[in-house]
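Posting for a labmate who doesn't have an account.
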Amino acid sequence: MNALPVTSLFAALLTLLYIVLAIRIIRLRWRERVGIGTGESLPLKAAVRVHGNFSEYVPLGLILLGLMEVNGASELLLFAMGGLLFIARIFHAIGLTKTIGVSIYRTIGVLGTFSMLLVSAGFVLGSFLGS
């Protein structure tokens, strides 16, 4: 029996996305002949930041999603928050890959990620204060 089925689903999906982002870095390292760091390669610098940014925000999002699930959030809300995080991270990756400057994709990614974190944190705080 899976105690956290929705969180488990999104953890698996986000892990697959994480691997795709890591493979992008590996391919760029081979192409640019950079063993460590980013050298002078702007595409590699961007790919490393996409991967790093993912690593910075996704674990917290998954922890919050799991806490929401444990605290009885509706399946609809859980799928909405997990889906928002997943889509936001894809948009962020696309946006930062297209340009290191501001882009609509990157903006959607950041706003989606922050929205998920804020709503989820609000739910968890509300659950704590309401108990």
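Reply:
Got it, the structure tokens are right above this. The radius of gyration is 17 Å.
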